[in-house]
Design goal:
Layout: E1 6-12, H1 19-30, E2 36-42, H2 47-54, E3 59-61, H3 70-87, E4 91-95, H4 97-109, E5 114-118, H5 128-137, E6 144-147, H6 150-154, E7 164-166, H7 173-176, H8 181-188, E8 196-200, H9 209-219, E9 227-231, H10 240-251, E10 258-262, H11 266-275, E11 278-281, H12 290-297, E12 302-305, H13 308-313, E13 321-323, H14 328-339, H15 342-356, H16 361-378
Parallel strand pairs: 1-2, 1-4, 2-3, 4-5, 5-6, 6-7, 8-9, 8-11, 9-10, 11-12, 12-13
């Protein structure tokens, strides 16, 4: 007996592939095609939705501006409603905070259930824009919330009565291990024998890119041929934090030693990881840390700040090294220790590779599908 496919609208907030967008991509690629037909909407245009289109996926960009721009907000909701109608969408799956409002308004008006996928705490005590969104969202409860970590659960008050599940992000091990280190170094113009440290995160203050630059400044005398690369895109065009990082890099005289290419596609990212001696993740707050898990899966020694996600992923001294949040001297000492010891890097990388396989992308997608199945079967949208 043929099973009719349910149509799911995946709504992503950002235009460049951070951890949440990687999860959306994995769901898109791995959801059971016999049961689910997925359509993607991105609320910003950029290299990630363009890359998805190049791979043959249907991606619609519905540009949003700021929350206070009511005209834009109504326009975004109107386009989402049109897509729901034209594509005969059964369920809306909204990824990250800014997508929740638009998806919920469109879903309610079209009498379709909405699932929220929360990665970072949706805390009304945080920034003004988040508080405003929280007030609005409190009146637009979803059918189900998927939390990507315990921190996301603990830091999201006000939605306890909503049905929920915790689904940890999964690691695409094959993709992580497909990198060619020599190819990555050639793409960057980095000689094979020079040490290379890297980090991968959206460029926002909470991810700690400035700590990375401070660390590089401390290490350059001991490792004169050291290169660094900060992969990740700024949150907004002409972003003030990006400009600040450029200024810090210039002040330290690191313009040639530290590269900041912005967004990098999956293939180049895997090559850069493979070509790195150490991967650093100096985030000041991190609910999970998919970039950490991916580098571990590739067999790399990772030095990460001792926040919620890395603390769960890494056994200090065995499958990686942890340092106190914001403590650049200890970060620098840990990186220096690994750069001086290829044997320790190899030992830690081997343990890290084994540990990362415990977070299966296939398991993650199946759990998301179970949420969809339950919502579609049980939820009566009123």
């Amino acid at each position: 007996m043929k099973v009719e496919r349910s149509r799911v609208l995946l709504i992503a907030s950002y235009a460049d592939a951070g951890g949440a967008e990687v999860v959306v991509q994995d769901i898109l690629e791995r959801a059971d095609p016999g049961r689910y037909a997925c359509t993607v909407v991105c609320l910003k245009d950029g290299r990630w939705p363009q890359a998805l289109r190049e791979r043959g996926y249907r991606v619609t960009v519905v540009p949003r501006t700021r929350l206070r721009d009511l005209r834009n907000g109504f326009g975004v909701v109107s386009v989402l409603r049109q897509i729901v109608r034209q594509e005969n969408i059964d369920l809306l799956h909204a990824s990250e905070n800014s997508a929740f409002l638009y998806a919920s308004l469109a879903g309610r008006s079209m009498r379709r259930p909405v699932v929220w996928h929360i990665y970072d705490p949706l805390n009304p005590a945080s920034a003004l824009s988040t508080r405003m969104a929280s007030i609005l969202l409190s009146r637009l409860r979803p059918a189900h919330i998927i939390y990507a970590s315990q921190l996301a659960i603990d830091g999201t008050p006000g939605f306890r009565e909503v049905a929920s599940s915790m689904v940890l992000p999964g690691v695409n091990v094959d993709r992580c291990r497909a990198g060619d280190g020599l190819r990555g170094r050639l793409a960057l113009g980095i000689p094979e024998g020079n040490p290379l440290v890297s980090m991968f995160a959206r460029v926002v203050p909470s991810k700690g890119q400035e700590d990375f630059l401070d660390c590089m400044a401390r290490l350059r005398d001991a490792f004169p041929g050291l290169y660094g690369i900060i992969c990740g895109a700024p949150a907004y065009p002409n972003d003030s934090y990006w400009r600040h990082l450029m200024s810090v890099r210039s002040r330290y005289g690191l313009e040639e030693a530290v590269m900041m290419p912005g967004y990098v596609p999956d293939e180049l990212k895997a090559d850069i990881v493979a070509g790195s001696d150490v991967v650093i993740h100096p985030a000041h707050i991190e609910a999970f840390g998919l970039a950490v898990a991916e580098a571990m899966a590739a067999g790399k020694a990772v030095v990460a700040s001792d926040t919620d996600g890395p603390h769960m992923l890494i056994e200090h001294g065995t499958s990686g090294l942890l340092f106190p949040v914001g403590n650049v001297p200890e970060l620098s000492d840990a990186v220096s220790r690994l750069l001086q010891s290829p044997a320790e890097r190899a030992r830690i990388g081997e343990r890290a590779s084994t540990r990362a396989t415990e977070f299966s992308v296939e398991h993650m997608v199946r759990e998301v599908e179970q949420v969809w199945k339950g919502v579609l079967e049980d939820h009566s949208f009123g």
